[in-house]
Amino acid sequence: MTAPMFSKVLVICIGNICRSPMAAAMLRQQAPAGVQVRSAGLAACVGYDMDPLALQVLGGEAIEHLPHSASQLTEAMLRWADLVLVMDHQQWKSVTRHAPYVLGKTFLIGKWRDDLEIADPYRRPLSAFQQTYAHLGRCIEGWLPYLSSEDQEK
Q1: H-helix or E-strand spanning residue 13
Q2: Mind listing the pLDDT tens digit for each residue in 125-142?
Q3: 120 catalytic, yes or no?
Q4: Which residue out of 13, 18, 45, 139 is catalytically annotated?
Q5: Which helix (H) or strand (E) holds 105?
Q6: Rounded to two decimals, what is the model's pTM?
Q7: Which of 19, 38, 45, 139 is catalytic?
Q8: Fewer CB within 10 Å of terminal CB in the chain, N or C?
Q9: Using CA of residue 60, residue 27, residue 149, residue 38, what is the dihedral sign?
Q10: Taking a C-beta distance cutoff of 8 angstroms, is the pair 19, 110 a contact?
Q11: Is 147 within 8 Å of 30 (Cβ atoms)?
């Protein structure tokens, strides 16, 4: 039996200004060509750019990022995604309670790293964002073998 391959990834956090847009930028840079990545928040700071410290860390690591405007999680986003990644167990519970149909495709981003939860660096110093980046990097590395563009699946 072959492992499932995901081509549409939705990354979720709370405000959609720190962890999920950082993770989305990192995934876009590391995933195979054609994999689509979006991010959203459970209580998004709708319309806000990425936190300046998150931008600083990504820039320092030469991670390219698209212009960002925080988005509230919607049903359409959940239906679009093949894979939904959340930062902690509480977010997993919230998403799967609200939308039980995503149960089989919603996972902790740290699933392959002993269920590592990603702490929220919001309103914390640069070092917290650097730690978030390092933890996200380890977690994303674990998901890369499961990502493939739709074209490659055919």
Answers
A1: strand 8-13
A2: 999 999 999 999 999 999
A3: yes
A4: 13
A5: none
A6: 0.93
A7: 19
A8: N
A9: negative
A10: no
A11: no
